Amino acid sequence: MSSQVGIQQLLQAEQRAQEIIARARKEKTILLKQAKDDADRDIAAYRAQREAQFQDYARKHTGSTDEYTKSLSRDTAIQIEQINKDSSDNREKVIQLLLDSVSNVQY
Fold first, then answer.
1. Is 48 exposed, middle or buried (0-12, 13-18, 19+ CB in 10 A)?
2. What angle do CA 56, 57, 60 make, to 5 degrees?
3. E-strand spans in the chain?
């Protein structure tokens, strides 16, 4: 009988070990799920922070781009005006130079 008692005790110990392992696996699964949820929250918070920083950066630099575009347009208009004025001022001289070059053909 003592061998049966020993076998019975071993079977009970194995049963308890299996229960402990099953509980440990459940706890591990729960802890992993909590860690994943925490990580997802941290990632979402970080992403929101970086998005806010990007929006702020974009807002600041978009304004300067608009100013740069306006400045460039203004400078371009001034240069076109100067070119038109110069061409108007020198129009007669250029026409006369062309006429002189065409009429005075040299061999």
1. exposed
2. 85
3. none
